[in-house]
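cache lookup: miss for this entity combination. No prior model stored, computing from scratch. Input as submitted by user K.M.:
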Amino acid sequence: MTVVKDRVLDESTDRRTGIYIAGKWVAPANRAVFAVDDPATGQIVQELLDATPDDAVLALDAAADAQRSWALTPPRVRSEILRRAFELVLEKRDVLASTITREMGKSLAEAHAEVTYGAEFLRWFAEEAVRVHGRSMITPEGTGLIHVSRRPVGPCYLVTPWNFPLAMLTRKVGPALAAGCTVVIKPADLTPLTALLVVEILAEAGAPDGVVNLVTTTQPAPISTAMLGDERLRKISFTGSTQVGRILLTQAAQRVLRCSMELGGNAPFIVLEGADVDAAVEGAMLAKFRNVGQACTAANRFHVHHSLADEFAAKLAAKAGALKLGPGSDPGVDLGPMISDAAVERTIQIVDDAVQRGATVLTGGRRPKGEGSFLEPTVLADVQPGSRALAEEIFGPVAPVARFDSVAEALAAANDTEYGLASYVYAPSLDVGHAFASGLEAGMVGVNTGLVSNAAAPFGGVKSSGLGREGGTEGIEEYLTTRYAASPEP
Ligand code: NAD
């Protein structure tokens, strides 16, 4: 991302300025812009306005003004708007996928898969919008009635990361709108362009002006401080690193704000004695190299029973080494670039640290020559305890393989992290796999599968991986509050 402070948007600039308030793209005069880059080439894709805290407050003005009428809009109407948005996302899948690839780097095939996955949250929450239940009961004394109803929390601030520019947004905006909340969206400055298209799709689907607002910025901290300090805001939903999540939680505590936090992970991938190695390698390819390893659910470290470790590592290295690396828009590419040069450098340092502590590089480990933020898919064997590759969230295409001797040792290694988002276990049977999984400290576990995400399932973590769930029947709960009304028995 390049900050271009000496230029302002002019009339020739794309109408999607990066600030969307009350149904309009706005372009305040004499405002600095920043550039969104293509990580495959380093070229500028588009320039956007760099929003300030004042812009964010205007966006919140619009969200607060629209809140009451949106909350009173019949759930069926809200549902039909989301359903129409789902259809529009699929109709516009080509432009959405190519925008994701250009700003984030992933292959076009993966970008199409993200569009399909992300669209499902709009369909799922269109269906959930009309299934928000309350209850009534006679008091135990028999003299009164208790009515319990569910109400929208109110205006929400939605902050999203760069790794899934569409799906991380629909996973928040779908349930928020379904519940009757208005929103201000702040996408990651590395990948804001897909979010601009989603905002227009929601408007085209019928979301009234002010229900969906958006600001893009290279200065998230002051904007978040202004938003979280404003008494009209009722909730923050954040997806990103645990480090930033902690800052936002501290600020949110001052106003006792509702919070959903989808934070970092360090997913263990356990291969138990007697597991099918070929199936485990298939699952590992999906869990590790999807999105170039830049997924919070990515398998971070592989703990393999000593009887299978050499075979597993060799087969994984053969498959990883055969992946085609290149610009995501080139046909047949499996792995696009990482998000930035800085991400490549950090990942190489993690590989070097593992090698210094005794690991062997079976494949990859280098940055190919030429332009773009590329890193070869990498498999490391015999990674030793204490290595950064086991302790830190790698967020890149590096698979460290370590050995264990006993089930107790495997479980202790799996849980030896402050995180608890995803986890994976490959076992000789589902019964053995589920028995092992019951001891894992994680919000999600894949048993004999390398993929855990589904719009119908509750996504989220325990420990320092976050608070709350997105998707499933739980997802809409995050945007609802409970009201109790008392009356005498008629
Ligand atoms: P990040 O925390 O750097 O940024 C996330 C968002 O927060 C961006 O929009 C960014 O602009 C904003 N931000 C950054 N600093 C801020 C500040 N001081 N105040 C307010 N906002 C701020 O994370 P990232 O690099 O974009 O994403 C990678 C991280 O996200 C990884 O740790 C990954 O595990 C996590 N992640 C989690 C999930 C999940 O569902 N649990 C999903 C995807 C990514």
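stored under new cache key. Residues 159-163, 168, 186, 188-189, 220-221, 224, 239-241, 244, 247-248, 262-265, 296, 393, 395, 421, 461, 466 surround nicotinamide-adenine-dinucleotide (CB under 6 Å).
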